[in-house]
């Protein structure tokens, strides 16, 4: 159905083109200028009043990122808490992905995550024209951007003149499941009828082979209970197609665009657990086989019409965006040390099967108008409407478990799985309607440029949980927030300028915290029940920055930020005894407590032409990140916020030889998270990437890249407790140290322009 819908949308502009007349369009970029750069590429110095960092695709392209997530690793203040070689949930300024707004072409997109976040590794890097990091908020954009926003701008109909093909091979030398993969793509842009058309398609293999090793103790420095040796291989293919058409219609400009991305992935985790840490067959305690099959479809369709009317410019927008996430998980576990006879004689066998199906659709519309009020002053106002419908079904089959009596008797045949039935809180529909009017005034007077706005966001939410009693299945939650914003930019000289922004923003509650389902032993031995009456968290934020132009192409900047977040959503004790009896409780969530987030961001990108090395480019960015929050134990940072992120590197062009090479180095600081009954400390190793390229004439580039050349590792320490009282008194249930590592990935990519 999605393919038919997208094909109809892609062909619609061509049909429409036959009955309209084109006018002059802006000049598109020659495709040869994109694939054969011949000079260092740096971040753009934007003219936006709101502090914005902009990076064209060429800034990332030489290192051949596979996804938008891979590209964002080089951007200031972006961190991830993913597995090694994975870059999925953006943690702008180190905060949870739910605090960052992900936009595609300036519009919101739904994600599969319960925190409303969108995994940026679902978008192939080849689709993008540029990436913008918007550090503050404006009245004409959705206000759920406490940490800021990432705007992924896809190529439009004016992006290219001509086309190119991309052919590549990927090598995973540490993979036991196939060492080679491919990447293939093509993009074309040009005149089509009375307008301009852009078409693009891309297929790329994805593979992430990792090894994990865990040691589990009864407490820190205590007795070693067991070790676990695990392999984790994520193998899949991404498919994407995008189209855009732009044409002048009836005195205005019509833009139609669409993108479809399919992620098809299989995750295979196999582990061996050894008693007392003695890794021999005699001590083999558990063999686990955990497979996860994922298919995720993202579809985005947009229409925008703009024309002069009513004394100004009026814009009409229509949009449809959806994510369809289907997952099937299978886990088989064999135990061997439940009696005196060791491996290979099995004592107990357990089989679990879970199905997850999430469909999230958003239909949006907007009517916006802007007009001049006076010389240098512009008024903009409008109303934006979004209707979200989210269906989530998490179901499992009855657990299959049986003992094998009288070992070494053979295990009986495994019975077939029973029917799937929803887990508690697993069959939920959420309907959310937003109507957000706004007004904004902006102006420019000599060296000063400014913007002030007011946005009023209304949210009506209906939650239907079909796993609870009929009388409690439907709950409603309505709220509204007034969000003022103000930004200014002052030009000190032709090279120097300062920026200031202040804005009130929100973070809406996670979906899984709204359902009134009781989850037994969710936190250690204690239970949890959701709260459908949650209000959003709100934040008052400030950004102050300074930026200087270096020569013709270089730029250096520093920015300080501060966020005062109120009505934090935190776990609280209802005081009601839990299902496990005395000493346990039922916990819920409520709007309690406040927190602050602050930091300093520095970035530099420039050619070294001031010392006669105009073909050498260097880039460096460093972000110091910190925060304060008080929870049930005491003061801590916001959960899993890294204390810094560092990127630096260089590119060296060799014009005489038509060649270039470069490297980039990345290091992310440690992070700590504390929730009820568990604490996690996370640290990452450094990441090194290099590229070497050779151009042939004006239309061919061959590029070799290597990533994760330092065999980066992710190290985690888990402090686990049976209850909240045990956590406070440090009476451990288990203490675990886990290390995960992966090897390098190499790509050889050929681009040919035509």
Q: What do you see in this structure?
A:
By secondary structure, the protein is mainly β. It has a single domain, classed as Maltoporin, Chain A, CATH 2.40.170. The chain is built from five helices and 40 strands. The protein is globular. The model is unreliable at 1-25 (pLDDT under 50).
Give the gist of this structure:
Residues 262-709 form the TonB-dependent receptor-like beta-barrel domain. This protein is mainly beta.
Descriptive labels:
single chain; 754 residues; mainly beta; Maltoporin, Chain A; transmembrane; receptor
Write the layout of secondary structure elements.
Layout: H1 2-17, E1 29-30, H2 31-35, E2 52-56, H3 57-61, H4 68-72, E3 78-79, E4 91-92, E5 100-104, E6 107-108, E7 128-134, E8 148-154, E9 160-171, E10 180-192, E11 195-217, E12 224-249, E13 252-275, E14 284-309, E15 312-335, E16 348-374, E17 377-396, E18 400-403, E19 421-445, E20 448-465, E21 474-491, E22 496-507, E23 518-523, E24 526-529, E25 537-550, E26 554-566, E27 569-577, E28 585-591, E29 595-608, E30 613-630, E31 635-636, E32 644-654, E33 659-668, E34 671-675, E35 678-684, E36 687-696, E37 700-707, E38 713-720, H5 724-729, E39 734-742, E40 745-753
Parallel strand pairs: 1-9, 5-8, 24-28
Antiparallel strand pairs: 2-7, 3-4, 5-6, 7-8, 9-10, 9-40, 10-11, 11-12, 11-39, 12-13, 13-14, 14-15, 15-16, 16-17, 16-18, 17-19, 19-20, 20-21, 21-22, 22-25, 23-24, 25-26, 26-29, 27-28, 29-30, 30-31, 30-32, 32-33, 33-36, 34-35, 35-38, 36-37, 37-40, 38-39
């Amino acid at each position: 159905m999605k393919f038919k819908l997208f094909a109809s949308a892609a062909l619609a502009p061509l049909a429409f083109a036959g009955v309209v007349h084109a006018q002059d369009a802006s000049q598109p970029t020659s495709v040869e200028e994109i694939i054969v750069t011949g000079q260092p590429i740096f971040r753009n110095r934007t003219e936006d009043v709101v502090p914005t960092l902009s990076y064209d695709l060429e800034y990332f392209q030489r290192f051949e990122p596979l996804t938008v997530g891979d590209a964002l690793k080089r951007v200031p203040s972006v961190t991830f808490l993913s597995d090694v070689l994975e870059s999925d949930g953006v943690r702008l300024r180190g905060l949870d992905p739910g605090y960052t707004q992900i936009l595609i072409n300036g519009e919101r997109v739904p994600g599969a995550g319960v925190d409303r976040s969108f995994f940026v590794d679902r978008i192939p890097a080849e689709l993008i024209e540029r990436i913008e990091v918007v550090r503050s908020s404006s009245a004409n954009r959705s206000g759920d951007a406490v940490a800021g926003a990432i705007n992924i701008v896809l190529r439009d109909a004016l992006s290219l003149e001509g086309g190119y093909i991309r052919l590549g091979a990927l090598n995973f030398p540490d993979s036991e499941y196939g060492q080679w993969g491919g990447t293939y793509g093509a993009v074309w842009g040009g005149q089509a009828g009375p307008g301009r058309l852009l078409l693009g398609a891309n297929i790329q293999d994805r593979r992430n082979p990792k090894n994990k090793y865990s040691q589990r103790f009864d407490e820190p420095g205590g007795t070693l209970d067991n070790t676990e040796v695990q392999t984790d291989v994520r193998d899949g293919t991404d498919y994407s197609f995008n189209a855009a058409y732009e044409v002048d219609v009836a005195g205005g400009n019509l833009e139609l665009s669409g993108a479809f991305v399919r992620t098809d992935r299989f995750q295979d985790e196999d582990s061996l657990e050894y008693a007392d840490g003695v890794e021999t067959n005699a001590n083999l305690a558990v063999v686990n086989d955990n497979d996860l099959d994922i298919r995720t479809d993202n579809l985005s369709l947009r229409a925008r019409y703009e024309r002069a009317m009513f004394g100004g410019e009026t814009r009409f927008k229509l949009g449809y965006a959806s994510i369809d996430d289907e997952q099937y998980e299978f886990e088989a576990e064999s135990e061997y040390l439940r009696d005196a006879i060791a491996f290979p004689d099995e004592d107990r066998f357990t089989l679990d099967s879970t199905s997850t199906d999430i469909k999230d659709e958003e239909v949006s519309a907007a009517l916006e108008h802007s007009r001049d009020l006076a010389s240098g002053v512009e008024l903009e106002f409008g109303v934006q409407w979004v209707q979200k419908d989210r269906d989530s079904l998490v179901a499992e089959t009855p657990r299959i478990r049986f003992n094998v009596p009288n070992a070494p008797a053979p295990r009986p045949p495994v019975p077939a799985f029973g029917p799937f039935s929803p887990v508690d809180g697993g069959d939920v529909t959420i309907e959310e309607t937003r109507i957000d009017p706004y007004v904004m005034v902006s102006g420019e007077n000599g060296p000063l440029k400014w913007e002030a706005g007011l946005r009023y966001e209304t949210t009506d939410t209906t939650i239907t949980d079909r796993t609870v009693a009929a009388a409690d299945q439907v709950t409603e939650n309505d709220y509204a927030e007034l969000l003022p914003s103000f930004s200014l930019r002052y030009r000190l000289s032709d090279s120097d300028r300062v920026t200031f922004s202040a804005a009130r923003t929100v973070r809406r509650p996670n979906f899984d915290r709204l359902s009134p389902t009781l989850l037994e032993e969710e936190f250690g031995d204690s239970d949890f029940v959701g709260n459908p009456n949650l209000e959003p968290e709100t934040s008052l934020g400030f950004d102050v920055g300074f930026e200087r132009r270096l020569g013709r192409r270089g730029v250096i900047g520093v920015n300080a930020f501060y966020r005062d977040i109120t009505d934090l959503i935190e776990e609280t004790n209802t005081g009601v005894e839990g299902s496990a009896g005395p000493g346990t409780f039922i916990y819920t969530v409520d709007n309690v407590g406040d927190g602050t987030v602050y930091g300093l961001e520095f970035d530099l990108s420039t050619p070294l032409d001031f010392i006669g090395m105009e073909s050498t480019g260097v880039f460096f960015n460093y972000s110091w990140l910190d925060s304060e929050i008080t929870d049930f134990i005491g003061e801590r940072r916001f959960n899993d916020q890294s204390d810094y992120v560092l990127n630096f590197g260089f590119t060296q062009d060799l014009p005489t030889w038509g060649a270039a090479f470069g490297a980039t180095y990345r290091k992310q600081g440690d992070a700590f998270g504390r929730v009820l009954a568990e604490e996690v400390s996370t640290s990452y190793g450094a990441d090194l990437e290099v590229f070497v390229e050779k151009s042939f004439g004006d239309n061919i580039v061959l590029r070799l890249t290597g990533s994760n050349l330092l065999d980066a590792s992710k190290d985690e320490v888990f402090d686990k407790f049976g209850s909240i009282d045990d956590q406070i008194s440090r009476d451990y249930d288990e203490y675990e140290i886990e290390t995960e590592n992966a090897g390098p990935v190499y790509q050889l990519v050929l681009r040919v322009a035509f």
